[in-house]
Amino acid sequence: MNTPAERLRLLYEVASQLPTFGDLDELLGYATRRTRELFDAEGCSVLLLDPPKREFYFPVSSQCESRRTTEARLAEIRFPADRGIAGWVLTNDESVLVEDTANDPRFYGGVDAVTAMQTRSVLCAPLRSHRGNIGVIEVINPAGPVGREDLEFLEALASDVAVAHENGAMQRQLRGDLASLRQMSTIAGLGLGGVGILTGLGTLVGHSARALPFAELLTHPGAWASALLLLVGTVLLALARSR
Questions:
Q1: What is the CA radius of gyration of the chain?
Q2: CA-based, 20 to 30 A from 78: which of 110, 117, 131, 201?
Q3: C-alpha distances in angstroms, 215 versus 119, 210, 220, 221?
Q4: Which of 45, 31, 40, 55 has the alpha carbon at shortest distance from 159?
């Protein structure tokens, strides 16, 4: 196990690195890998809550070399968010260290049954956000003795991961909103441009049918309306294509 100084250094490293990631899975992958390395553990996973279904799922995890196949299996697993040590931590908003899962009634063996692994000890901390707990982070089978200081470290790390995850989710939502706005601007721009062209053609045909002087066309309300519609449509299309 690392010394307190090394834990602080790694906490600072993770905290400073997390905000630089734009991709949410890459961010969580980095956090779980560094945490697993810190504890020299067999695995480290982030379990996120799916609020509508009240289920946990594993968006990303980091496993030691001998358990690489476990990562793919974990990605397919979902289980009720009120089960297991993770469910207890989420519900009670309290970190926990379980040194012997075989003698802890909160332990849920469903994940082990699917992944064919054996969870002997667990450190688990909630991922707290301003909306409430969004999941937990777990360290599975850490090497060497662990204690309260290690759990406090995991709590601090979980706080950074939760904030970074929330920021990443917000950025993803903003990108989606921007894409929708661009799509609407494109549709509106094309629509207004089309109406402007039709309005201009209608004005021109009507003006020609009455054999009015061409100079008067420039002051006709229809011509001004056509020009305005074309201008607004062009601006919307330009905005839709801008970065």
A1: 29
A2: 131
A3: 87, 13, 9, 13
A4: 31
Q: Which two tokens stand for residue 119?
A: 């969870």
DSSP per position, 71-129: HHHHTT-EEETTSHHHHHHHHHT--EEES-GGG-TT--THHHHHHT-----EEEEEEEE
- Sequence-ordered list of residues with C-beta below 8 angstroms from that of 94, at least 6 positions apart, any chain: 126
Contact, 73 vs 44, CB < 8 A? no
Query: Among 243, 131, 236, 158, which residue's Cα sits nearest to residue 193?
Result: 236
Neighbours of 205 (CB within 10 A): 10
Contact between 56 and 79 under an 8 Å Cβ cutoff? The reply is yes
**Local structure of residue 200 (DSSP, 8 states):** H
Q: Cα–Cα–Cα angle for 76, 47, 53, nearest 5°? A: 70
Which tokens belong to 68?
């690489």
CB atoms within 10 A of CB 104: 15
Domain boundaries, the chain: 4-172, 175-241
What region does 144 belong to: left with phi over 0, alpha with psi -120 to 50, or beta? left
Q: Are 164 and 22 in contact (CB under 8 A)?
A: no
- For the entire predicted model, the pTM comes to 0.68
Residues 89-115: pLDDT tens digits? 999 999 999 999 999 999 999 988 888
- Name the CATH superfamily housing domain 4-172: GAF domain (3.30.450.40)
